[in-house]
Amino acid sequence: MQLEEYIKKTRADKNILLMTHIVLGYTSLEVNREVIRQMVENGVDLIEMQIPFSEPMADGPVIVKANQEAIETGTKVRQCFDFAAEMTAAHDIPFLFMTYYNILYQYGVEQFFKDSKKIGIKGFIIPDLPPEEGEEFFRLSREYGIDPIMIYAPTSTEERMKYLAGYGSGFIYCVARKGVTGKQTDFDKDFGSYMKRCRNSTTMPLAVGFGISSREDVETLVGIADIAVIGTKTIKVVEEEGIDAVGSFISSLR
Amino acid sequence: MTKTGYYGNWGGAFIPEVLYETFRELNTAFEQAKKEPAFWQEYTDLMSTYSCRPTPLTHAENLSRHFGGAQIYIKREDLNHTGAHKANNVMGQGLLVKRMGKKRVIAETGAGQHGVATATMAAKFGFDCTIYMGEEDVMRQRPNVFWMEKLGATVVPVTSGSKTLKDAINEAFRDWVTDMDDTHYVMGTVCGPHPFPEMVAWFQSIIGMEARKQILSQFGSLPSRVFACVGGGSNAMGVFQGFLDDADVELVGVEAGGKGLESGQHASRLAGKDGSAGVAQGYKTMFLQDGDGQMCDTHSVAAGLDYVGVSPILTDLWEKRRVRFAAATDSEVMDALELTMKKEGIIPALESTHAFVQAFKEAGQLNEKQAILINMSGRGDKDIFTIANAFDDPSWKEFIIGKGAEYAA
Ligand SMILES: Cc1ncc(COP(=O)(O)O)c(C=O)c1O
After folding, report:
1. Most A CBs within 10 Å: which of B3, B6, B10, B14, as the mutation test of the A interface?
2. Do B14-48+85-196 and B52-83+204-390 have matching folds?
3. pLDDT value at position B2?
4. Which domains does chain A carry?
5. A133-172 pLDDT per residue, tens
6. In this predicted model, what pLDDT tens digit does every residue of A32-42 receive, in sequence order?
7. Residues with CB under 6 A from ligand 1
8. What does residue A74 show for φ and ψ, rounded to 5 degrees?
């Protein structure tokens, strides 16, 4: 089942879905395994797994550090695939890969699609690959049936959004504000008009991420977005309160 | 036809969506400026009154005699304001920032030269200025940090990654995606997403234009070879552009050989065998990376050459065999520096000295009726701490220990 269909179907029973983000290999794949188990048990609807990259340009300090430490402790792309295969087999929700383009480029872009397809990965989020540079990528995503998730930013015009939507499928990832991951977001008037622009430009479901960390944040998004994305906050919860706090944190969000 | 922003297979603009509009604006402003002869005129006027353009071309007679081969000519970018070619690019982008009506500039810096140049430009034009500098570079180039701060800039030490130039570039991008409306990112070299490589090369082309004219009038014909050090590649592109169409002029880029090409501790993306094609920091070029695509730690005695990537324009010229690449090791650099100081009374920056090393290796292969040209990208007296340290100079150490005691008291 393609992501869009899954999201629309799941949304029939829930007023908003949750997508969580984890950095593979941080602090270890064992920790990832337990965190994901708790996430799924507590009702997370989709999970994006970030394959660490040494130059995560669009990420903020917490995720940058997680990327760096994951690489320093020896996390390899190969292991990320093996781990992802285990997760998609164990859990009945869609998993996506998030990473930067160089990881695909070194792996071999087509091989990356092939292997991802084989292990049941449903979508890719590649923040440094605009459609202008992604000819091969977008062709392969159609060929292999893996959804390329397009990103909207508050600086995107409606015209640009429509153009981007033409390349994407599954859902749209709306970056809630300017800046990198990890800082708190103000859901102000500008945010409202931005989300209207997003809605007008596509019929795909909308996910909103960057700075979403609490039940209040998630509630604000009900009726505006289809998916709330929780990124940095879960890393902080694990760092500050330990792995066992993940489950109750997730269940507190909705 | 090649795609916009591509040089053969290299370049592009791998940027996050949030910067799309900003780049569109920048491209428009740059395309417009390129079309207006008045803009270039304003730029050269500024450079001849605020900096020292045209910079001289010096005939290094003693060195020429010493090697007994080609006549050695040195293009003196060290005589620019702030002591390096970096000023050319920075002042040019400053004029562009004025046109775009932005009020704040940010920049990455490795050696600190680009940071200092940007800070002077910001002071002159009345912009706010933030400079990102790897923590390791803050340590090795402390005097430049002092000057940037005194010039009114905020210097942010970058503690992520390898704490050098590439990490400073990432941090500058993170600032820019947060605050693009009134901020311009003054990229310091011919790297990064389009239009930066083209824009920086355009401003730096002033070096080659002058050098070509100067060598024709002083020596009477074109040089056989032109040497330039290559960090990101801006001074090299600057001087090479004066000779690209002269098929008989051989162009030689010299990268940081660090502790040797076999040591794994160097920054030679093209001269050695360790580089491979990749996409990072917004562009496609040859990077020093592992099989997974993770960037490696690089090493050079010269902070300004200590970088994982290289200009996509140079990678293309390398692939097309128009530019030949060589590497100079840290220790060869120290020897060439000492010789240049003793023979000519000229103190090249450690970065620039890499070009001297290769020129010295080749001068003897040519005869005295031929000339070679070295682009001296910057002056070395600003590197006094690094150079004194590399020479392991005893009286300097004594001085520092004494100063330390004085401050501690
Ligand atoms: C004096 C000097 N030369 C060369 C470089 C290397 O840069 P590029 O290769 O862009 O000229 C630097 C960079 O900081 C520098 O300060």
Report:
1. B14
2. yes
3. 66
4. 3-249 (3.20.20.70)
5. 999 999 999 999 999 999 999 999 999 999 999 999 999 9
6. 999 999 999 99
7. B 84, 86, 110-111, 113-114, 189, 229-236, 304-305, 349, 351-352, 377-378
8. 95, 15
Q: Relative to the CA of B204, which ligand 1 atom is closest?
A: 11
The string of DSSP letters for A131-144 reads GGG-HHHHHHHHHH
What would the two tokens of residue B251 be?
Answer: 């162009």
Helix, strand and coil content of chain B, in percent to the nearest 5, comes to: 50, 20, 30
Tokens of B226: 């032109």
Segment B195-211 shows an average pLDDT of: 98
Residue A128 to residue B173, Cβ atoms within 8 A = no
Distance in angstroms (rounded) separating the CA atoms of residues B99 and B66: 50
Tell me the CA–centroid distance for residue B305 and ligand 1, in Å. Answer: 6
- Three-state DSSP state, B376: strand
Q: Report yes or no: A119 at the B interface, CB cutoff 8 Å.
A: no
User: How many C-beta atoms surround the C-beta of residue B334 within 10 A?
Assistant: 18
Residue ranges per structural domain of chain B: 14-48+85-196, 52-83+204-390
* Whether pLDDT at B1 is above 60: no
In angstroms, the CA B91 to CA B382 distance is 20
Asked if the Cβ–Cβ distance from A57 to B295 is below 8 Å, we say no
Residue to mutate among B284, B292, B298, B307, with most A CBs inside 10 A, is B292
The helix (H) or strand (E) run that includes residue B234 is helix B234-240
Handedness of CA B191, A53, B265, B301 (dihedral sign): positive
Cα atoms in the 13 Å half-sphere on the side-chain side of A66:
30
pTM of the model: 0.96
Provide the chain B residues 300-329 that lie in CB contact (below 8 A) with chain A: none
Q: Percentage of residues in chain A with pLDDT exceeding 70?
A: 100
Instruction: Name the residue with the closest Cα to ligand 1, atom 1.
Output: B378
Return d(Cα A107, Cα B32) in angstroms, integer: 40
Q: Would you please indicate which residues of A are annotated as catalytic (active-site) residues? A: 48, 59
CATH 1.10.10.10 matches B14-48+85-196: no
Q: Kindly report, residue by residue over B220-279, the tens digit of the pLDDT.
A: 999 999 999 999 999 999 999 999 999 999 999 999 999 999 999 999 999 999 999 999
Q: Is residue A1 predicted with pLDDT exceeding 70?
A: no
Q: Is the pLDDT of residue A57 over 80?
A: yes
pLDDT of B188 > 90? The answer is yes
Here the ipTM equals: 0.95
The CATH class of the B52-83+204-390 domain is alpha beta
